[in-house]
Amino acid sequence: xxxxxxxxxxxxxxxxxxxxxxxxxxxxxxxxxxxxxxxxxxxxxxxxxxxxxxxxxxxxxxxxxxxxxxxxxxxxxxxxxxxxxxxxxxxxxxxxxxxxxxxxxxxxxxxxxxxxxxxxxxxxxxxxxxxxxxxxxxxxxxxxxxxxxxxxxxxxxxxxxxxxxxxxxxxxxxxxxxxxxxxxxxxxxxxxxxxxxxxxxxxxxxxxxxxxxxxxxxxxxxxxxxxxxxxxxxxxxxxxxxxxxxxxxxxxxx
Length: 254
Ligand code: PGA
Prior knowledge:
- The structure is a single chain.
- This protein is an alpha/beta fold.
- It has helices at residues 16-32, 47-54, 80-84, 95-100, 105-117, 130-134, 138-149, 177-195, 197-202, 216-220, 237-252; strands spanning 5-9, 37-41, 59-63, 89-92, 121-126, 160-163, 204-208, 227-230.
- Helix 1 (16-32) runs parallel beside helix 2, helix 1 (16-32) runs parallel beside helix 11 (237-252) and helix 7 (138-149) packs across helix 8.
- The chain is globular.
- 2-phosphoglycolic acid binds next to strand 8.
């Protein structure tokens, strides 16, 4: 039985004081919601402060990116070694990183390797663009991304995958629960071919892209969807709490 996971990806939002204020507002209620792993992914500069605030709670911490080298002359970068000291999860290969920072499958692969090596739990994002979706290439694109991201990795213990169709991110145009469920089940089949059925059944696969309190139920009712990577709605205390609460209730009732 997979424990659902809801991760809030705050992206490049919140100053240090806004981040701590947001955490303070959701802390108690979020802590009390059971049967879901709750992960907050604030910007790097707020990780240490958020870590202090959530200490002793059931809330977990994640980063939004890392650089694949461990130490050295890489001005401005943050490594897995630094993060492993601070948080448990790290988002890797988000489509915004692929699109704006030219992250290729090869780079994403190196980042996943670095994360796993240092004991971080990667949340690996895959997803097709609008034109690829419209051309009926979703399965092909997602399979290719998965294979290149996981190339030469023999053990994916600790990994979570997030299926995020690029056309649904930040657009208010979410996929349907059924569409997402179908692609996620394809991802699980791919993982089964690569790593065996047991690993595939244990792997958590999230949906991401315009998840809100209004559509969370539709996604969480799908059997293959194990949670969500939430962007915009994770910055709104009430929305995020509601998404986590709905997930807990629906997945518990299964
Ligand atoms: P969104 O972002 O919920 O704002 O669409 C999701 C994501 O990018 O992870």
